[in-house]
Amino acid sequence: MKIWLYNTLTKKKEEFKPIDETAVRIYSCGPTVYSYAHIGNFRAYLFMDTLRRVLKYNKYNLKHVMNITDVGHLESDSDEGEDKMEKAARKENKNPYEIAKYYTDIFFRDMERLNIEKPEIIAKATDHIEEMLEFVKGLIKNGYAYETSKGIYFDISKLDKYPVLSNRKVDEQIAGARVDVDTEKKNPYDFALWIKAPENHIMKWESPWGLSYPGWHIECSAMGRKYLGDEFDIHTGGIDHIPTHHENEIAQSKGLTGKVPARFWMHVEFLQVDGGKMSKSLGNIYTLDQLQERGIEPLAYKLFCYTAHYRTKLNFTFDTALSSQKALMRLREAFIKQTQGTEKIENDKIKEYENKFLETINDDLNMPFAMGIVWEIARNEQKSKQYADLLLKFDNVLGLDLKNSQKYLDDSKNISLPEEIQSLIEKRKQAREEKNWSLSDEIRDLLNEKGYIVKDTKEGMTVERKE
Ligand code: AMP
Ligand code: ZN
Questions:
Q1: Are strands 12-15 and 24-28 parallel, antiparallel or unpaired?
Q2: Cα–Cα distance between 1 and 462 in angstroms, integer?
């Protein structure tokens, strides 16, 4: 079945076909590891995960690169302010490498909690300084770059067209109100490829221009090229990447290879909180841990993200996220009921659901619609193992870990039980493992006396408070 993806470059949905059938080559802009990733950032990685899973569901192999920015990302995307890593290091009284390691580890722990598949290749900027240097030298050789007292800059006037991705009006802005302070730049939108390091900058490398460090955009161009070649299939990021970061990546690649590096450019819209922007000053930047403290599992946040298409804004409130938490529990319960069902479903019916699901996810990853199909199956009056198997198949795309539904349901019940009861449950589990049936019965009676009903089912023991 055909796959349709929206391409920011052409501003339309296009049929997707890989350049090379053996593997779809994807590059995703990854985190800048100077702080905890927040739920907005994770909306971007959840979108990346859906794209991966949909392509794999369509039987494609993937060669997917995600970068870790651990140098060169200044406070503003357009070369103003300080390197985010250096600033965080100073604030936390650590060196930038320690900062990078600490937040990278937490980032991948959170990715796992969200059941986001790890891309095949994780590329750290500081591991690719050589490749970036070569790229910049190539740009200078091709006449696209020049040196100033601050560093090496890309000359956008040498391109046939800039911008190509966004509709940023470069000419208007040149004449407009925004005064460019760097008089050494040939054009206001020229951007830094390489930055000469101030004395106190910790991350810096030898280069023909003295001790210096790479600009942010060059890492993605150089690492993308190294692992995926001059032209690959898909490049992903957040909508904030469109006007500067991705525009400049394209400029760099055109300057070196003459090619736009990716065929499809895909961008995820922002997550908003309480109807507005997430910001430190509003105190509304939440992490997965903070959601968990309020009873929202990472996977419930994932389900919450499926309530909106990736190209539309999504508004986060604790109330709506809690509804997703409840919905996730209901989905798990509905799935378990289907696993226990014995009805025989016509093959045609199963096929029809499969086709509908495939058509929906292949229509630019329409997860809200796909979830509609999932709910229809989960809640079907007819209870059948075939439906459970179908849900498990679809879960290859959803990534909600439905196969462990019973475990999550048990855990959630146990969490709300007093410690004394939990410890009795543990003892009874052990007694049953040791086939000590009399002790098991004794504990069951004791639990009963204390107001808890114990049931032994095929999937294990359930304990519920008497109403
Ligand atoms: P950063 O670590 O700041 O480079 O950002 C990592 C990713 O998160 C980028 O792809 C951004 O586009 C994305 N991002 C940042 N804020 C949000 C948000 N509120 N909603 C969705 N994506 C976001
Ligand atoms: Zn990037």
A1: unpaired
A2: 43
Give residue 238 CA to ligand 1 midpoint distance, Å. 6
Q: Which residue has the tokens 């980032």?
A: 107
CB of 369 within 6 A of ligand 1: the answer is no
Q: Is the CB of 245 under 6 A from ligand 1?
A: no
CA distance 237 to 214: 20
- Give me 105's structure tokens: 């580890």
Query: Which ligand has an atom closest to residue 310 CA?
Result: 1
Sequence letter at residue 181: V
* β-pair partners for 315: 272
Q: Is 217 in the pocket of ligand 1 (CB under 6 A)?
A: no
Report residue 397 as tokens.
Answer: 């795309």
Residue range 92-96: mean pLDDT, rounded: 89
The answer, yes or no, to whether any atom of ligand 1 lies below 6 A from the CB of 271, is: yes
pLDDT digits (tens, 9 = 90+) for 210-241: 999 999 999 999 999 999 999 999 999 999 99
Contact by Cβ (8 Å): 88, 35: yes
Pocket test for ligand 1, best of 26, 41, 99, 269 (most atoms within 8 A of CB): 41
Q: Which pLDDT value is given to residue 238?
A: 97
- Closest ligand 1 atom, residue 278 Cα: 19
Question: Phi and psi dihedrals of 256, rounded to 5?
Answer: -90, -45
The three-state secondary structure class of 230 is coil
